[in-house]
Write a structure and sequence with these properties.
Layout lengths: L9 E5 L6 H8 L14 H13 L3 E8 L2 E9 L16 E8 L9 H14 L6 E4 L6 H9 L3 E7 L4 E8 H14 L1
Helix pairs in contact: 1-2
Length: about 190
Amino acid sequence: MNNPSTNPDLTLRPLDPLKDAELLHGWVTHPKASFWMMQDATLPDVEREYMAIAAHEHHDAFIGLHKGVPAFLMERYDPRYVELVGLYEPQPGDVGMHFLTAPSDVRIPGFTRDVITKVMATLFEDPATERVVVEPDVDNKAVHALNEAVGFRPAEVIQKPEKKALLSFCTREQFDTAVRERETAI
């Protein structure tokens, strides 16, 4: 899963819910992952959550690697069946996405933007994907800026059971334009 418009040091592999649970537990319970809403999760909670995702027909997860080292999480889902059922009118080709960068003591400028670019490029590698849908917490200003940087446009605030969310969409064209503009600005 690579794309020329993404950082070549970033790759993805399918998540193994049992083998990766301890790693993920450290990520999702870290204070920087507060918007992931798993702060109090135990290791068995994380195993169960990702086993359920792995078993779900319309939801899957991947570990993102930076130079071969686990560094981020990507989830892909079909919003007709997961997360957004009844909260908006899905269109053919809609794909939902979540991503989380691992906590790190080493700061790499632009890393999180590179991660979301890799995630988006991976989703658009599927020719059936027309539009990516996200629903971050309305208070997660950092992710709103990242989403905008890769072409997302806010649509509306929706109330999910666990949070008030900013429903946003990004078409393939919006993503390609955002990546092209960033590459020409460098």
